[in-house]
Amino acid sequence: MPEGPTSHLIALDMRYVGQEHVLTLPVEDGRIEPSALGLAFDEGHRARFGHAAPGQPIEIVSLRVSAVRAIPRRAPELLAPGSGTPDAAAQRPERLVLFEIGEGPRPCAVYERAALRAGDRIEGPAAIEEETTTTLLRPGDSAVVDGSGALLLEIGASR
């Protein structure tokens, strides 16, 4: 756990009784002054919604507390550089994919995203698979893997 001071941000979600929308009021220095709370809510309500109803019953819907601590910034992890063409380890068996209704399925290259390296370029049609999603490149599209592992997509003009 990182060392350092922790600050706490406290806020109240409040509304006039019978209303649906709420106004979030920050609590300064962790102190709630009940005598000033209604006035602060009315002023905040007027500023946010353009009207207020002083003297109307107010309810606290939620109390929010957030703990904040600064942590040291880590250097981003960079992928190993690739050759520009995905390694054989990244390639999976080709599959047939239907891209357009009325046309037959087309052969589609398939790649495992975790095995791609920085600078690898993939031309569509292709599928880039990972555990939680698949990126589909249509014919004319392309993708380049940047140093952080992000896929930079170019959508082809053929559509």
Automatic annotation (TrEMBL):
<protein>
    <recommendedName>
        <fullName>Acetophenone carboxylase-like C-terminal domain-containing protein</fullName>
    </recommendedName>
</protein>
<dbReference type="InterPro" id="IPR045079">
    <property type="entry name" value="Oxoprolinase-like"/>
</dbReference>
<dbReference type="Pfam" id="PF19278">
    <property type="entry name" value="Hydant_A_C"/>
</dbReference>
<feature type="domain" description="Acetophenone carboxylase-like C-terminal">
    <location>
        <begin position="83"/>
        <end position="147"/>
    </location>
</feature>
<dbReference type="InterPro" id="IPR049517">
    <property type="entry name" value="ACX-like_C"/>
</dbReference>
